[in-house]
Design brief:
This protein is mainly β. Helix content is 9%, strand content 41%. It has two domains: 164 residues, Sandwich (Lipoxygenase-1); 194 residues, Thrombin, subunit H (Beta Barrel).
């Protein structure tokens, strides 16, 4: 493998290449990447490619960019430049960051460890790809700055903007006709269950399933897209219910358990995870939601977030991709208000503090796998 040093260049063996970017910081959480597409005068020829705004010539997946150089250069581009930047989004309670170690692997045989030795570096231009006499080449750069990406762009004469992490639902939205997907629901009285709006959104058929019991068809009573909450109903009585917490409960730091059916394509058994309430607000300080650390995956949407007493303090809703357990749930107060507006009364049950195995044993019959088809 060829190892580049600052200022060195080397020829590339193909017009379609990969560029893997490794950093001490988490991309999409505190660090962004953008490719600048410039002409011979080093002005922007076409719009940049960001992590969340990719192009037909630049695709990003799991720290690796795939670049179609002929497609980019056919649009009058003379050089592509890779910029790494950090940002601070106070709404996500992420501390201000600075660029540390960055390594690049270009194609199968070129490595570049970017020499960033100064403190408080926020933006760095680290690689350039250009064409000379029909040959694509790359050059190692390290133009570092304490400026924000926007200010760095102004220095270059290019309009740039930061891209912040995107909150993502745990199951697909806007499904295609015939598509199937799953989620989780929990019973709140003998005929009604709570789940997420995005679980049932677009479904023409909804069913619920529990091991050892016959499948049941379910119907939507109401859905509220803003809070990502839905109430569904079944005709036959449900065997067990969960109770929402009531009154004011001190939640910050409290231990919680979630039960649901994530990744049901791999296993349809009930799965249990534990964690803590890590924040009392959602993304952008949204008071409708709280943040928790219990691990979740696709299919967890609609799972109850339970205290050791079995009381439900939230409903699992979403996560932020490529972060360490930054997960969100709809608060129990909002769930209670939605039930009231629909004329559905949550049945209150007796509560006692359980260890996790006993908690699961006492309440698992209230959990159902939701299957949907568009």
């Amino acid at each position: 493998m060829t190892t580049l040093v600052l200022g060195a260049n080397t020829a590339l063996t193909s017009g379609v290449i990969t560029v893997r970017v490794d950093s001490t910081l988490a991309f999409e959480q505190t660090t962004g990447i953008v490719w600048l597409a410039l002409d011979e005068k080093r002005t922007a020829k076409i719009s940049p490619a960001y992590l969340h705004e990719q192009k037909d010539w630049a695709k990003y997946d799991n720290h690796t960019w795939t670049l179609d150089l002929p497609k980019a250069f056919a649009q009058g581009v003379a050089r592509l430049q890779l910029v790494i930047y950090t940002y601070h989004d106070p709404n996500l309670a992420i501390a201000a960051t600075e660029i540390g170690g960055v390594s690049l692997v270009v194609g199968d045989g070129v490595r570049y460890d970017v020499p960033i030795h100064d403190r408080h570096i926020k933006t760095a231009l680290v690689l350039e790809i250009y064409e000379r006499q029909g040959q694509y080449k790359c050059r190692a750069l390290a133009e570092c700055s304490s400026l924000s990406l926007k200010s760095f762009g102004e220095h270059l004469g290019i309009a740039l903007h930061e891209k912040f992490p995107q909150q993502t639902s745990l199951t697909p939205r806007r499904p295609m006709a015939g598509e199937t997907w799953t989620g989780t629901a929990f019973a709140i009285d003998s005929h009604h269950l709570l789940t997420c709006y995005h679980v049932i959104d677009g479904a023409s058929v909804i069913g619920i399933r529990q091991q050892g019991r016959a499948d049941r068809q379910a119907y939507v009573v109401m859905g509220d897209e803003g809070s990502d909450t839905a109430i569904i109903r079944v005709d036959e009585p449900l065997p067990s219910v969960l109770s929402l917490a009531v009154g004011q409960v001190e939640l910050l730091g409290e231990s919680v358990v979630t039960m649901g059916f994530p990744l049901s394509g791999l296993s349809s058994q009930l799965q249990v995870t534990s964690g803590n309430i890590s924040g009392l607000l959602g993304v952008h300080d949204d008071i409708r939601f709280l943040q928790f650390t219990a691990p979740i995956q696709a299919g967890s949407s609609g799972s109850p977030l339970m205290l050791p007493t079995g009381q439900v303090v939230g409903m699992v809703m979403s996560s932020i991709s490529n972060t360490q357990n930054m997960n969100y749930a709809v608060k129990y107060q909002l769930l209670s208000a939605i039930l009231t507006s629909a004329g559905v009364a949550n049945i209150q049950t007796q509560h006692a503090s359980f260890g996790v195995p006993q908690l699961v044993k006492e309440h698992k019959d209230a959990l159902w796998l939701v299957g949907c088809q568009a």
